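User: Nicotianamine synthase, Durio zibethinus:
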Amino acid sequence: MVCEKDPLVQKVCELYEKISSLESLKPSKDVNMLFTQLVLTCMPPSPIDVSKLCKRIQEMRSKLIRLCGEAEGLLENHFSTILGSYENPLHHLNIFPYYSNYLKLSQLEFDILSKHCSNVPSKVAFVGSGPLPLTSIVLASFHLTTASFHNYDIEPSANSKALQLVSSDPDLSERIFFHTSDIMDVTNALKDYEVVFLAALVGMDKDEKVRIIDHLAKYMAPGALLMLRSAHGSRTFLYPVVDPCDLRGFEVLSVFHPTDDVINSVVIARKFPMTKHSIEQPLGPTKLPNKFFDIEMFSPLNHVNLVEELDIEEQRS
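Assistant: Predicted structure for Nicotianamine synthase:
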């Protein structure tokens, strides 16, 4: 069992103690330094399996993910406020320190989407867009330049700040929309979207994440695509993991594990067509070939900037 003796785990525990003792997680010299150290510690590819961590470390990891989520939200809120003070906020997005990561992640997600989407989507939803909806902005600006983006966030202040970023742009202000809703209260509207993105920090623990995925499976249109952000190896100390078996009601198409400075893994799945059986029966886990788990868990990782792609369709051939 991987536990306290592992050097990586020791370092993460040390940083957790420092981060959890901070009076505030708002951007500051100390906060920025500690989270930078944490990201750099967790970034190198690692074969660590969080499911084999001892209970104490599992509990620490859960708390650390919540701290990361809170700090990320405060960071985005801080920079959204700054950007909103400009006459043309979208001309200054590069002041956000992780903007280049969003450019890379959005390019990756667009490439994955293009491989599995026969038609260019016209209507996209993003769940958990926050005050700085960079994914929607980047995809709408550079990749899906005719699609409309409907962003859902539970916080009215987040949507208000986000709206201010796009309102001065004549194109994006007509294609990017914001809805203040708990996604669990959104039902029939979900049928309108050809693609739904689920942010990494929507559903901070396994049970909550699965409840949200089950809700999306119930209301998304048959054949619609769900794109999720997950994590792999040591990066699972930063973000929750989405396992293929969590995607009940969906066919998992591919899982991508970047090994560069893009932290999130990307999962793409297709909503199963509705059948009489699927309506009458409760959602069950999607059974995947054992080969998927063998490759996903044991494929050797390297330190070059490659993306490991697992195509379920290819495995079945």
